[in-house]
Write a structure and sequence with these properties.
This protein is of the alpha/beta class and 504 residues long. It has 16 helices and 26 strands. The strands form six sheets. It has an eight-stranded mixed sheet, with helices on both faces. α4 crosses α10, α12 packs parallel to α13 and α15 packs across α16. It is globular and about 80 Å long. The termini are far apart. The N terminus is likely disordered.
Length: 504
């Protein structure tokens, strides 16, 4: 399945019916064969959306779009802007908000496909990908369901990669249009704060909104924690009286969301006040055994997932399934068969010591991760991590503190340095260590850091390689290279095994 829908056309005037148009020039009754934000993807008779970004105005690329065959351009303009010089032969439409218009027109072009589907949006700082994957696995027992998120867009055993946690509106709607033609009736997707603020899911009619956790992240985009939280709240503001919210009440911000809901809700968590809560549970390196109380009865299960944070993720998915009326038997069976999501608390090696790979890239995620692993009673807990460059710098010392307070030994290394000096990022992380903390080593080369951690490990230890998870690349200032924590760890484990055989 591809996102490109061949022979799909619509008339611009029809697409504009729900859009706030300020002015226009040229005929609006023209045939449109597609809509694009990226001028490089324009095809003949496509509509080009010149969206104002944070660094530059999309109108800068109008000439490229025209050269590619664009038949019209839609844009917004601020009062102090110089009105753009647009060729007279081209239809142009000035709108109040280009991103809102983009979502509306994408929905209209693809026949408002999500209006006839049951849609679930999952938001929160951590846990979104695992919760989406769990909901997808459970619902698949009884429904044809698609999932969209960090790991791509997936339906009917086929996955299409995406570069964004929540893709742009046209990518979502075009994909779901094709999936719906193949029988898809349900959707579960990650709704990131950035996507919510940029209106990417503005015109998806959600029946459920799921909240996982809230902690500091993306402040390079949002600026403040208040703006970050308010962006999350947009999803819940979309819920009507007949819709449902699923709220983690172990998180203080979950309680804050409850106060503002205008819909029905189910709560989950370890709290005694939660609607879905564990009455019994046991954690080990083999997984989770638990008994959950739900509004529809008790569920017993064994899961291959590891740790306290994953039981919380399971509770979120169970809450969603109970609301929809999925049978308790199917819920239990799906959880028992569910395999760890790539890069999310994924135990890749169990021998004399254990090795896990996880995507944790915030201080809160790291703290929850390490505390969950501590409950597995390792001899020593060793972490390898870095922090992304050209992103929120404020979380780096907090990540350092979380690692130093919860691990026995810390290897500080590179993540995706991007435009920054890796050494500078490392210094920011170390600044968060308490003055008396000495159980750490700096190794900027990520492969060497993983190697050193594996060679350091002794019987009963647990190593977690954090920050990149499923990613198979590393971004530097002047290049992007292939780099996969899974491959590197497997390679170093193999070398260690051969070395031991040689010395036996």
């Amino acid at each position: 399945m591809t996102m490109n829908i061949t022979n799909k056309t619509a008339y611009l005037d029809e697409l504009l019916k729900k859009v706030d148009v300020i002015s226009y020039s040229g005929s609006l009754h023209i045939e449109i064969t597609g809509i694009q934000l990226d001028s490089r993807k324009i095809r003949p008779k496509n509509c080009f959306f010149a969206v104002r970004g944070y660094k530059e105005n999309g109108l800068k690329y109008l000439g490229d779009a025209i050269a590619q065959g664009a038949s019209c351009v839609i844009f917004e303009s601020k009062p102090d802007d110089t009105f753009p010089d647009i060729p007279l032969l081209l239809t142009w439409v000035q709108v109040k908000n280009a991103r809102v218009a983009f979502s509306r027109i994408a929905a209209a072009f693809y026949d408002y496909v999500t209006d006839s589907m049951y849609n679930i949006g999952v938001t929160g700082t951590n846990g979104k990908t695992t919760v989406v994957s769990l909901i997808h696995a459970i619902f698949s027992r009884e429904h044809k369901i698609a999932k969209i998120g960090t790991l791509g867009m997936h339906f009917d055993e086929k996955t299409e990669k995406t570069s964004l946690t929540t893709p742009e509106a046209v990518d979502i709607f075009s994909y779901l249009y094709k999936a719906h033609q193949k029988g898809c009736t349900h959707l579960v997707m990650e709704a990131s704060s950035v996507a919510l603020k940029l209106h990417r899911v503005q015109d998806i009619r959600f029946s459920q909104a799921v909240f996982t956790t809230f902690s500091g992240d993306h402040l390079d985009f949002h600026g403040t924690m208040d703006d970050y939280f308010d962006s999350k709240l947009i999803l819940f503001g979309k819920m009507g009286l007949d819709d449902w919210a699923v709220i983690n009440v172990d998180d203080p911000m979950g309680l804050k969301i409850l106060e503002q809901l205008n819909c029905r809700y189910v709560t989950y968590g370890y709290s005694e006040n939660a609607d879905v809560q564990p009455l019994r549970y046991k954690f080990s390196q083999e997984g989770i055994q638990a008994n959950l109380r739900t509004p529809k009865g008790h569920i017993d299960f064994k899961s291959k997932l590891v740790g306290r944070v994953n039981l919380l993720n399971i509770m979120a998915a169970v809450s969603s399934a109970v609301i929809k009326g999925i049978s308790l038997e199917n819920i239990s069976a799906a959880i028992s068969e569910f395999k760890p999501v790539k890069g999310r608390l994924d135990m890749i090696y169990k021998g004399d010591f254990g090795v896990l790979i996880d995507y944790a890239h915030t201080d809160d995620a790291m703290e929850r991760l390490l505390q969950s692993l501590r409950e597995l009673a390792p001899q020593r807990l060793i972490i390898v991590f870095g922090a992304g460059g050209s992103r929120d710098k404020t979380k780096r010392p907090r990540m350092g503190r979380a690692a130093s307070m919860n691990a026995d030994f810390v290897f500080v290394t590179s993540d995706n340095p991007r435009q920054e000096d890796p050494e500078s990022i490392v210094k920011d992380i170390i600044a968060g260590f308490p003055g008396n903390f000495n159980n750490y080593a700096v190794e900027v080369d990520r492969q060497k850091a993983i190697k050193k951690a594996i060679n350091m490990a002794q019987k009963g230890d647990l190593i977690v390689v954090a920050g990149k998870g499923h990613e198979d690349y590393q971004v530097f200032k002047d290049r992007t290279v292939h780099f996969d924590d899974y491959e590197v760890a497997a390679q170093e484990l193999d070398l260690l095994s051969k070395e031991k055989e040689k010395n036996a």
